């Protein structure tokens, strides 16, 4: 898998492009991302509401992730980028 994520300076929005991380013809959708201020707090809120969420992964450079799937099988990543 090769992925490049582009985030304009000061923006809360990113565009991810790459090979091997999504098949637009197939459902469910993979690798949807939600950028959050506090991945731990967001993870706890999801857990309290019955959502199975992975442990938080620290990717280095201030980037942290947690992963979950919605009832339709779409996979989501909670992404925190510390500046």
Automatic annotation (TrEMBL):
Record-linked InterPro entries: Glyas_Bleomycin-R_OHBP_Dase, Glyas_Fos-R_dOase_dom, VOC_core
A Pfam family annotated for this UniProt entry: Glyoxalase
Top-level taxon of origin: Bacteria
Domain annotation VOC: ranges: 1-81
Protein name: VOC domain-containing protein
């Amino acid at each position: 898998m090769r992925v490049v994520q582009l985030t304009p300076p000061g923006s809360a929005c990113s565009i991810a492009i790459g090979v091997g991380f999504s098949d637009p013809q197939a459902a469910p959708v993979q690798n949807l991302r939600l950028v959050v201020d506090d991945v731990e707090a967001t993870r706890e809120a999801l857990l309290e509401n019955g959502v199975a969420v992975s442990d938080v992964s620290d990717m280095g450079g201030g980037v942290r992730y947690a992963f979950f799937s919605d009832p339709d099988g779409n996979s989501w990543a909670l992404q925190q980028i510390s500046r």
